[in-house]
């Protein structure tokens, strides 16, 4: 299909009235360049990986200091939910969008949890607090 489109572009340049007065080598070079551009544009999506999925982009932004258990939990949530993936179906689009937003928000909260440093009380403080509450 790409070859047909490229050949069509080359023929449009070669047979155009505006290029009738051009030297033959210029017309052929321009036609070949058009064919090459079509080929490059056709191959571009294979070689470029764009982050169009907001959940995958948010997963990549997780800090490295995040606890391994939380990281695995968040990754499994993004992978197992699966509603935000796949081809868009018209009746599923609102649910798909809201699930992707929920996943992104969960990942954001998990990333913020990496900054929280938990400080636990020692045994004497806990014993004193239990006595205080009695």
Task: Tag the structure with descriptive keywords.
mainly alpha; 134 residues
Question: What layout of secondary structure does this protein have?
Answer:
Elements: H1 2-14, H2 24-47, H3 54-60, H4 68-81, H5 93-113, H6 123-133
Give structural notes.
This protein is mostly helical and 134 residues long. It has two domains: 2-47; 54-113, no CATH class. The protein has six helices and no strands. It has helices spanning 2-14, 24-47, 54-60, 68-81, 93-113, 123-133. Helix 4 (68-81) packs antiparallel against helix 5. The radius of gyration is 29 Å and the shape is rod-shaped. It starts with a helix and ends with a helix.
User: What is the global morphology?
Assistant: rod-shaped
Please indicate the percent range of residues in DSSP E strands (runs of 2 or more): under 5%
- Strand count: 0
Q: What's the story with the biggest beta sheet?
A: none
Unreliable stretches (pLDDT < 50, length at least 5) are: none
Alpha-carbon Rg, integer: 29 Å
How far apart the termini lie comes to: 81 Å
The number of helical runs is 6
Structural class per helix/strand content?
Answer: mainly alpha
* Total individual domains: 2
Mean pLDDT: 78
SSE order in H/E notation? Answer: HHHHHH
Q: What level of helicity do the residues show? A: 55-70%
């Amino acid at each position: 299909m790409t070859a047909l489109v490229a050949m069509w572009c080359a023929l449009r340049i070669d047979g155009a009235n505006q290029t009738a007065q051009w030297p033959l080598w210029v017309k052929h070079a321009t036609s070949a360049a058009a064919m090459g551009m079509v080929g490059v544009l056709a191959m571009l999506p294979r070689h470029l990986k764009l982050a169009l999925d907001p959940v995958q982009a948010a997963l990549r932004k997780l800090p490295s200091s995040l606890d391994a258990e939380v990281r695995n939990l968040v990754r499994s949530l993004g992978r197992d939910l699966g509603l935000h993936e796949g081809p868009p179906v018209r009746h599923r689009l609102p649910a798909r969008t809201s699930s992707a937003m929920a996943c992104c928000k969960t990942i954001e909260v998990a990333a913020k949890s990496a900054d929280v440093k938990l400080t636990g009380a020692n045994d004497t403080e806990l014993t004193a607090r239990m006595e205080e509450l009695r």
